[in-house]
Specification:
Helix content: 25-40%
Number of helices: 9
Strand order of the largest sheet: 6-7-12-10-11
CATH class of the largest domain: Alpha Beta
Order of helices and strands: EEHEEEEEHHEEHEEEHHEEHEEHEEHE
Strand content: 25-35%
Radius of gyration: 20 Å
Number of strands: 19
Shape: globular
Bound molecules: uridine-diphosphate-2(N-acetylglucosaminyl) butyric acid
Distance between the termini: 25 Å
CATH topology of the largest domain: Uridine Diphospho-n-acetylenolpyruvylglucosamine Reductase, domain 3
Structural class: alpha+beta
Largest sheet: 5 strands, antiparallel
Number of domains: 3
């Protein structure tokens, strides 16, 4: 177990914001975590993964937990499927790469998403028509309050768009230690999102490896590499409005992307709404939106968490004023 006091978090948030934690604890096994918790832990706590969905607006006066459980094991297998039990500290894209190399189908559309396996269950990360929750079989946690072990079945996780029970009634109560994914040994591939199928065909055909390459190419073209420019990926969630509201907007803006949902409501594209408000062209000093994807708020250098929040509020106000649509943040604001 590693523990550090007054710990700098710059390397633990992809936004590249300076902030400190009173105590930072990194555990490599469930036993280490349980021992720490049973020895009398108190005060605020926060569990982080790769820090790719966090915005620190101040120092964190409490304990930050980070998993260094990095095992990947096949726990069951039949002729069609494999169950893969993955430590919460495994780098997400390394996991996706491993599954593609092993000819296991399911995670390929989620290539190159920053972060770690544990957060895939909390955030229900999604891209190109697939969400992590579609593949998750169960989630193992240690309960912060009493250091007991819990296992959440897929149903108990209540997965929805960028949502799980760990963002709802279980928020702040668990440390995810393992996530088990149910993966397939053969296709179908999911290629219906946007121009994904065309990209895959350009690469030479519908194979698992080509889907991963195509997704990586699309993401590299549209999204900033956290190593070059600080961001937290999509800063806002795509808003969901009533069919009537979507029709009204569509009458006025026929080019507006709309994605009807099974419940009858319509999901809009936050990136399109933000771009229409002119934010891609607006010059800014420390914070702006990414030139290829307006949904991504970027740190142009030296931004503080409060600068990002002030900028985000301006973006929200502009979209509300022009379209009458409320944007909600996807990032978790801490401090
Ligand atoms: N669009 C614009 N301008 C922009 C951005 C997008 O007009 O600046 C339009 C696009 O042309 C397209 C539509 O909006 O018609 C959708 O764009 P895109 O395919 O890039 O997807 P998104 O809805 O903006 C979501 C996820 C991304 C994920 C992509 C692909 C959310 C909040 N974001 O973005 O996730 O990669 O779909 O599946 O749902 C993330 O969570 O960090 C993330 C990057």
């Amino acid at each position: 177990m590693n523990r550090f006091e007054n710990y700098q978090l710059l390397e633990h948030n992809t936004f590249g914001i300076e902030a400190k934690a009173r105590l930072f604890v990194e555990f490599a096994t469930e036993d280490e975590l349980v021992e720490f918790l049973t020895n009398g832990h108190e005060g605020n706590s926060l569990v982080i993964g790769g820090g790719s969905n966090l915005l620190f607006v101040g120092d964190f006066d409490g304990t930050i937990f980070h998993s260094a459980i990095r095992s990947i094991e096949k726990v069951a297998e039949d002729e069609n499927e494999v169950l893969l039990r993955v430590g919460s500290g495994v780098n997400w894209d390394e996991l996706v790469e491993y599954t593609v190399e092993q000819d296991l189908y399911g995670l390929e559309n989620l290539s190159l998403i920053p972060g770690e396996a544990g957060a895939s269950a909390v955030q229900n990360v999604g891209a190109y028509g697939v969400e992590a929750g579609d593949l998750i079989e169960k989630v193992e946690t240690i309960v912060l309050g009493n250091a007991s072990k819990r296992i959440f079945s897929k149903e108990e996780c209540h997965f929805a768009y960028r949502y799980s029970v760990f963002k709802g009634e279980e928020k702040g109560k668990n440390v995810v230690t393992y996530v088990t994914y149910r993966l397939k040994k053969s296709a179908p591939l999911k290629l219906s999102y946007g121009n994904l199928k065309d990209k895959v065909l350009e690469l030479g055909g519908e194979t698992l490896a080509n889907v991963r390459r195509a997704v990586c190419d699309i993401r590299r073209a549209k999204l900033p590499d956290p190593a070059d420019m600080g961001s937290a990926g999509s800063f806002f969630m795509n808003p969901v409005v009533s069919a009537q509201k979507a029709d009204e907007l569509r009458n006025e803006y026929p080019a507006m992307p709309c994605y009807p949902l099974p419940c009858g409501d319509v999901k809009l594209s936050a990136g399109w709404l933000i771009e229409q408000c002119g934010w891609k062209e607006t010059p800014h000093k420390h914070v702006g939106v990414y030139k290829h994807q307006a949904l991504v708020v970027v740190n142009l250098g030296g931004a503080k968490g409060c600068d990002v929040i002030a900028f985000a509020n301006e973006v929200v106000d502009s979209v509300k004023k022009r379209f009458g649509v409320e944007l909600n943040m996807e990032v978790n604001v801490i401090g």
